[in-house]
TrEMBL record:
Alphabetized UniProt keyword annotations: Membrane, Transmembrane, Transmembrane helix
Record-annotated membrane-spanning stretches: 49-70, 91-111, 131-155, 167-186, 206-224, 231-252, 288-307, 368-386, 392-411, 423-449, 469-492
Protein name: DUF3360 domain-containing protein
């Protein structure tokens, strides 16, 4: 049997670097839940630094956003709780230390390189305030998400849902998420620049700086795409945005407040009383009931999230690389365990597949393990040093990294998938439904309509079984509707109150 070590050839034997990277992907044979070793099963390449850096910047920004949302929501929801920035930073560092070692370095780096890293559930961030106000408990929510995710992965439900989502529906979902996410980052940069106060000209006089940063980003990103070096976009654009902001006079807005050290890693400190940590104590039955619909919603959103990340691999990897594509069910298993363990030790992240790592890794034509190990080490280093977190969450760095590393590639991938008229129709309905409601319900509705030949390719519906055509899509649609009505996700758009 030919092993990776025997089939490996030095880069000098190939006509181009791309040919070498493609060959590496084609000869890899990851060992599932067995030890994978550098040199024997994979190699470190300098391209692995790109997704590692991108993932580090992205996760610091995401984790910080999650913890600040929890702090604000719980402070508003409970009379005896007052949480602020210091709490959010410490909990963020807890999330970056233990889970990074267990589920990034060990799990995805050495034990199962086909499981994508367990990162952050970005679409759930805007809901955290509502979760807290509904009386949910972060630890109860984590346990429920972990249990539901494990059940879905055991019965191979994740991969089945991916197979039931057509290219048209998936393309529409990517376009919508990429467009709305990109607009959000642009608005954040502009709001940040308008909030800067020039001592000579007064408040709001530096609004032009955001426009300059965005303009330079467009030029740099276009040049990298033209040169075939788009995988360099996150580090290159983030560093350039940092320099432009500093040269433009915004340096006074960057404050280094996080000190070097290790946060309190004792779970009792975080959950053991109502005087320290989260100040909530251990969850009771009422907390589990309040957390239930949000947990269902979070797990229901995993499949389209995982699908988008796997699509990036399929679009950028050469043929005969099925063995290195991320396994949806294994990724779901890792996310489930990581959700429970990460929160049990004191964290508060809501987990999903790590997009700010996978998307750059796919573009750079690199498999999961080597970059995962580097990323885990970077994340641990940042958590201990402290001050790099202040740079990573600074708006010009954070927003540009997410813009060029996640949202623009999502739009491009979605457009590439929508080539035929049937796919375009399914994509259009998915985008329209997402605009009317939200991406999760749009995915469920479009999948149901598409699999029954009501939109998209009518011939595709004839190839599906009754279970794949009716039972599963309709069940997913009903579950999503029930969860959304329960938690009041349609309240802000249409005034429909939640049942809880």
């Amino acid at each position: 049997m030919s092993t990776y070590k025997k089939l490996h050839k030095p880069a000098s034997e190939f006509a181009s670097r791309t040919d070498y990277l493609n060959h590496e992907l084609q000869i890899m044979k990851p060992r599932r839940f067995r030890i994978n070793l550098p040199g024997r099963d994979f190699r470190f390449e300098w391209e692995d630094l790109v997704p590692a850096f991108a993932g580090t910047v992205g996760i610091v920004a995401m984790y910080s956003s999650v913890m600040m949302a929890w702090a604000e929501g719980l402070t508003e929801a409970w009379d005896h709780i007052t949480l602020g920035k210091a709490f959010a930073i410490e909990v963020t560092r807890v999330e970056m230390l233990i889970p990074a070692f267990l589920f990034v370095i060990l799990a995805s780096g050495f034990l199962n390189p086909r499981a994508n890293l367990a990162g952050n559930h970005g679409p759930m961030i805007p809901l955290i305030a509502s979760i807290a106000l509904a009386g949910a408990h972060p630890l109860a929510l984590a346990i429920l998400i972990g249990v539901f995710g494990l059940l879905l992965s055991v019965f191979k439900g994740g991969s089945r849902l991916v197979n039931l989502t057509s290219k048209g529906v998936a393309g529409g979902l990517l376009i919508f998420l990429g467009f709305t996410g990109g607009i959000g980052q642009i608005e954040t940069i502009q709001a940040w620049s308008m909030g800067l106060s020039n001592p000579e000209s007064g408040p709001g006089s530096m609004g032009y700086l955001g426009l300059i940063i965005l303009g330079v980003t467009v030029i740099v990103y276009s040049l990298l795409a033209r040169l075939g070096k788009r995988w360099l976009s996150i580090p290159a654009c983030a560093i350039i945005a940092l320099l432009v902001a500093l040269i433009g006079g915004a340096g006074f807005d960057l404050h280094f407040t996080t000190e070097m050290g290790v946060p309190n890693l004792n779970p009792v400190h975080w959950w053991g009383s109502t005087e320290h940590g989260w100040m909530l104590g251990m969850p009771n039955m009422q907390h589990f009931v309040a957390s239930l619909p949000f947990a269902i919603l979070a797990v229901a959103m995993w499949s389209p999230d995982f699908l988008g990340h796997r699509i990036f691999q399929e679009m950028n990897y050469p043929k005969k690389t099925e063995k290195v594509l991320m396994d949806v069910d294994d990724t779901m298993t890792m996310c489930s365990f990581r959700q429970i363990v990460g929160t049990a030790v004191g964290g508060g992240n809501i987990t999903s597949s790590w997009g700010t790592y996978m998307i750059p890794a796919a573009i750079a034509k690199r498999p999961i393990p080597a970059g995962a190990i580097l990323l885990g080490l970077m994340v641990i280093g940042v958590a201990i040093l402290g001050s790099p977190m202040d740079v990573a969450v600074w708006p010009p760095v954070r927003c540009i990294a997410l813009l060029v590393g996640v949202f623009l590639p999502m739009i491009e991938a979605g457009i590439q998938m929508v080539k035929e008229s049937a796919c375009a129709q399914a994509a259009g309905i998915c985008i329209f439904a997402a605009m009317v409601t939200n991406p999760v319900l749009a995915w469920a509705l479009a999948m149901f309509l598409d699999n029954n030949g009501l939109i998209g390719d009518k011939a595709r519906a004839k190839k599906l079984s009754v279970v794949d055509r009716l039972v599963i899509p309709l069940s997913i649609l009903i579950i999503c509707l029930m969860a959304m009505f329960a938690v009041g996700m349609l309240h802000y758009k249409y005034g429909i109150p939640g049942l809880l």
